[in-house]
Specification:
Spore Coat Polysaccharide Biosynthesis Protein SpsA, Chain A; 2 domains; 9-stranded mixed β-sheet; two-stranded antiparallel ribbon; 10 helices; 13 strands
Length: about 350
């Protein structure tokens, strides 16, 4: 198969040791028709200039410098403004790729034009027999907006025994996602209101609204280092961004049906944090307070999404949210892995 052109976008923020390893891994892959867009999201000037001087002669790399850390979504958007055509692969900088990682995805997308985005299998770089938290074998979501994945439900991460080696339609992608410029032109850029966490899922939701499929390709393999720190800010962004995503994408009927339960589950989480780790209570409180400030912008974006829905009509390819609460099933019913959920595709 001829290799269609691929734009590879890598965002880095004070993590050039990871970025260089990722870059060298991609350069060693057996896919050669590509160009890198390396976006520096406000790293220290010394680190940026050292890396720039080391690789500036490589014609496959275009450097983009942002004045300060404006978040993953804004970094991706800076690259998107310069991309004119072709496929686009957004690759986390703390990943390594299998040599043949890209061919299976591009081949599938070339033969299935209704596919708007794909995700590879995400393996833990530190423990290669396990899936990795951020994406695993394809992302899913319950009707209350809580994400999980095949191979990872909350704190339970499965070994990769080939149990998820089938190509399936998924709800969201993580860590590495491959799409097309024409899809981005139709649905718009990443929403930089998210700053951190859920920006990929929000983009995926718009891709579904536009009538495209999102697919997991198991014979494309990525190794992800992932975060090893307990980031308090994650509580703020997870609660705030999950609510923003629902408000933007659900119909009025769906909001009336599902939002009260989501709010109740968040209230339960608040009291859980109160007992287990108090700083998360303040982060969750800030998340809700920030919604009042952001609501005008969120509602404006909701209007744009409703317009996208009207233009495309009823989705031809149905994406299936989990109809039960993943929180209740996991924490109260003890369903710790994906197959126990009996998820309806």
């Amino acid at each position: 198969m001829a290799q269609p052109f691929v734009n590879i976008v890598i965002i880095t923020y004070n993590g050039y040791s990871y970025t260089e390893a990722c870059l060298l891994s991609l350069l060693k892959s057996d896919y050669h028709n590509f160009k890198f867009f390396l976006v520096d999201n406000g790293s220290t000037k010394k680190d940026y200039e050292f890396f720039l001087n080391k690789y500036r002669k490589n014609k496959k790399i275009e450097f983009i410098r942002i004045d300060k850390n404006r978040g993953f979504a804004a970094g991706c958007n800076a690259a998107l403004k310069r991309i004119k055509k072709g496929y686009i692969a957004f690759v986390n900088n703390d990943t390594l790729v299998a040599k043949d990682w890209l061919n299976p995805i591009i081949s599938y997308m070339e033969n299935n034009p209704e596919v708007g985005m794909c995700q590879p299998k995400i393996i833990d770089l530190k423990k290669k027999e396990y899936f990795e938290y951020a994406g695993a074998a394809g992302g899913f979501m319950d009707v209350y907006g809580f994400p999980f994945a095949r191979g990872r439900v909350f704190f339970t991460i499965e070994k990769d025994k080939g149990q998820y080696d089938d190509i399936v339609d998924i709800v969201w992608t993580g860590t590495v996602l491959v799409t097309k410029k024409e899809v981005i032109d139709k649905v718009g850029y990443f929403d930089d209101i998210f700053f951190l966490y859920a920006e990929e899922a929000d983009l995926c939701w718009r891709i579904h609204h536009a009538g495209f499929r999102i697919v997991y390709i198991p014979n494309s393999i990525i190794y992800h280092y992932g975060s090893t720190k307990n980031i308090v800010d994650k509580t703020f962004y997870n609660h705030r961004n999950g609510l923003i995503m629902l408000i933007k994408n659900y119909s009025v009927f769906q909001l009336i049906r599902y939002l009260p339960v989501r709010l109740l589950l968040d209230l339960i989480a608040f009291f859980y944090y109160l007992v287990i780790y108090f700083p998360n209570c303040w982060e969750m409180t800030k998340a809700y307070l920030s919604l009042f400030y952001l609501m005008p912008k969120v509602l404006h974006q909701r209007a744009d999404i409703n317009k996208l829905k009207r233009i495309n009509g009823k989705p031809k390819y149905k994406y299936h949210l989990y109809k039960k609460s993943i929180i209740i099933d996991y924490f109260l019913k003890g369903k710790k892995n994906f197959k126990e959920l009996n998820y309806e595709f």
